[in-house]
User: Fold this.
Amino acid sequence: MGITFPLDLWGSFQRLKHFMQYLPHAVFAADRTGRIVEVNEALIRATGYTREELVNHPFFQVLPYRGTIGQLHSELIAIEETGSVPAEVEYRNKEGKLAKTKAMIVVPQSDPPLYMVNLFQLNRSTDDNLMEKVVDQLITEANLGVVVLNVRGCIVEISQMACRLLGLERGKVINQHIDKAFAGIPEEHRLVKRELLEGVKMQNKAMSWTNSSQRYELLVDSETVYNEAGQVAGAYILFKDVTNLRSLDQKIERNDRLAMIGQIAAGTAHEIRNPLTSIKGFLQMFQQSFTESGMERERAYTEIMLTEINRINALVSEFLLLSKPRDVQYQIVDLNIVFEEILPIVESQALLHGIDVNYASRGQLPMVVGDNELLKQVFLNICKNGIEAMGNEGVLSIHHHIDIERDLISIDIHDNGPGIPPYVIDKIFDPFFTTKEEGTGLGLAVCQKIIHDIGGQIRVSSKGYGTTFQILLPYL
Assistant:
């Protein structure tokens, strides 16, 4: 006896078509002549056909049966009545390969009358295998951060790039709740947040992320995933590392600003220095006269004024260095010698503040192309900033690592001071921006220009428990 369903369950043909798309297995509907009138996506994926190649074609294109669809239905019922439920049939994919699958034909009470053929064990198509390979590659190889959460907020999948960037170990965080995976990081500072499961959506959102050693600029997309009932089933977040692109944009913007500053400097530095030279000369004469006359108070006043004039001169010099191209003769520089010459200065400055200096790269640094004195200026400036940031205790650490893929050496200068606030960190290389009461705001801007001029990069990362400056230089 045939299996049928009453009309009040199945309804119209349109409802039947809609229902078929939700079935997890392959299924097609055929009319009494054996013509396929509808297929679902599972059948298309499993056989490799397109919908157009199946609909309105004979059913034996999929099932190479020599009889009619009615005869196949009766044959399957006879087999089922012997206890073999469901029965097996032979099917053919688009490539002509034959295989067997469990099958059942049901006949809903619909208008027009139809046979709904259910195929339960079709092998997945080559395209499905391709999709699996693409997903695997996204997770393991591609330069794309992928994190998938289930409804409970546990990480069910994470790509290798995401692990590297977030500072996680894949084997340890799979099925781990995000609160545990990111323990110690406040919710508002996390890249992967619980709010992803609450329908919060991001599209091409620019974000910054800093792990223990490096700062990244990211483009982030996220989406909440819902099940058939409209309930939250999980969420995913995708992010792309665009640090190099953002750095290029910022470098172009900064160069435009520096070009404008250069025009201002060229027109004003001469006009500033000329009167300063005259004022300084007369003050030196007054100072000598006051000294000879025993006028100690007046001599002290002139000394203060001379100190301030020297400060203005130093500011103008930095101003010109920042904006005006220098006639620098680049040569091969041994970084080991550079640090041997500046370490006594750094250590004496650190000693005055009660700071320890840990230099772990002694004798291990490669050769680079640059200007010896300008590189000293960069390293001294950054070390001095780190010492001043720590106050009267702490450790200034200097170490390096080699990036073989990009042929760069990274010299990392780390202090364990209070760190740089997030709202400030993007501005520290801007000319004239400073948090120091007596700072000019030009030191780091000058350092960045020196490093950029020799084809390097300078980055900063801070997480509230210290700051790391990373100087990247091409090495020989």
In short: The domain at 4-123 is CATH 3.30.450.20 (Beta-Lactamase). Residues 1-10 have pLDDT under 50 and may be disordered.
